[in-house]
Amino acid sequence: MIQSYQQRPRLQESYDTIIIGSGMGGLTTAALLSKQGQKVLVLERHYTAGGFTHVFKRKGYEWDVGIHYIGEVQRESSILRKLFDYVTDHELKWADMGEVYDRIVIGDQHFDLVKGVKNFKKQMIFYFPEEENAINTYVNLVFKAVKTSKNYYISKAISPFLNALLGKFLKAPFYKFSDKTTDEVLRSLTKNETLIKVLSGQYGDYGLPPKQSSFSMHASVARHYFDGGNFPVGGSSQIVKTIAPVIAASGGTILVSAEVEEIMIEKNTAFGVQMKDGKIIRAKNIVSNAGIMTTYNTLLPSKTVEKHKLKERLQKIKPSVAHVSLYIGLEGSPEDLQIPKTNYWIYPAEGDHDTCVKRYLDDLSQPFPVVYLSFPSAKDPDWSNRYPGKSSIDIITLVPFEAFEKWSDTSWKKRGDKYEKIKEDIAQRLLKELYKQLPQVEGKINCYELSTPLTTRHFANYKNGEVYGLDHGPSRFRQAFLTPRTPIKNFYLTGQDIVTAGVGGALFSGVLTTMAITGKNVLKTL
Ligand SMILES: Cc1cc2nc3c(=O)[nH]c(=O)nc-3n(C[C@H](O)[C@H](O)[C@H](O)COP(=O)(O)OP(=O)(O)OC[C@H]3O[C@@H](n4cnc5c(N)ncnc54)[C@H](O)[C@@H]3O)c2cc1C
Q: 62: which residues sit within 8 A by CB, 6+ positions away?
């Protein structure tokens, strides 16, 4: 059954653009095209819109699925903030997380990442006084790497003709950084293992430890949060709530519980989509926000996939790691329970990040390589208006999809006792980590629920339960096909896979896709 996200569905025979998936990239593309007068239809298979920006409610609580903090939006002049303001008509508000956005916990030591790049450096030099040079050089390299990324990403949106002419020059400076791993760059600056572990202590934000991740990915995340973290006032659901009216103003609609079965193609030109219930809806342009793996593996007709050898492209990229998330509901307000806004990244004392990941993947009973604690109710100043006397906490760790693969053919909530037992064991291990950091919340927990990679697959349609779409290793950034344009006329991609994981990356993908469709430079409008 197809439902409208708005009060009154206004499904029409044809649209200017149909967007498959209502993630941040899909919504941004929809809003930007709507602002240019296009009538856009967003089709979302989940019963709620927003992709990883959606929230779910149970037992009198609400949890955010894929937003814990967003950088750069506290400055009205930042491009990210301008974009958010533009696509939401200035309706989305942000709450600053305060002085310390991330706390890196290694064994029983902790290291705070402090807001403001000068403060960040000062604090790091306080922890590692003998490493002042390395720390200063590191911060400079982060800025340098990020500076090269603008032209790299713009090269993805310009016309193939211009790309042939200029692409090489636009991309070359970026490759100098993206071809290196985070570990290579950090080790060229210091031999201090703890400093390396701390500086790469946000690797969970992109899912790959330092020996495997591209330095460009690391740099973009580090830079993104240098000015601190922010949370949407009213929770992540405010994103879709504030974008939906912009789409509606041009006659567009977001439909939920609306699964696209196949993209319709004739003479190598996309002209519509066939829904799961058989209905065909037409549009001039079709955009997929469903992830490149899902799109090429399941949504395009096999003839088209074969014609353009699209499966060969997929051989060159890898899905990212999967995750489990423990959603906790507590009795007592964030103030009563002294719950911080700062995120905690907890790491084993022994071994570098890569060694800890390998040890765990070889034997899942070994210590978690990373445990992430996030406190959404403390970050959202509106939380206590909606949920007085209550708090929420999320705990995340990485897990291989294979650990849950054997339950792939079972249904959500009916996966059997063994599955539930494994979930409960993981939940208890994660709770222990929480109590070590916040002993005051022990005994205050009302309810908890663990999501697994199968949950991600069920709700977000990522086949391997991948947390961040594609892996962010050096080779990913060399793949020329991770662009909005595809070999099929009038068919485009958007979302994290064509830029990087992260709400900012997905937001920016909407800019690139809109530029590719309309040929207009959206950034100029801003
Ligand atoms: C646990 C977790 C924590 C995160 N924390 C942060 C954070 O703190 N800060 C940050 O910046 N980023 C964070 N991220 C990353 C960020 O949420 C994502 O990178 C971003 O939201 C992805 O947006 P997207 O546009 O690629 O689409 P997605 O959010 O992946 O949405 C794709 C949509 O397509 C829909 N779809 C798929 N197939 C079909 C079909 N056949 N028909 C119709 N619809 C379909 C799916 O249901 C889904 O809604 C986190 C992610 C996760 C999972």
A: 55, 56, 235, 237, 386, 387, 392
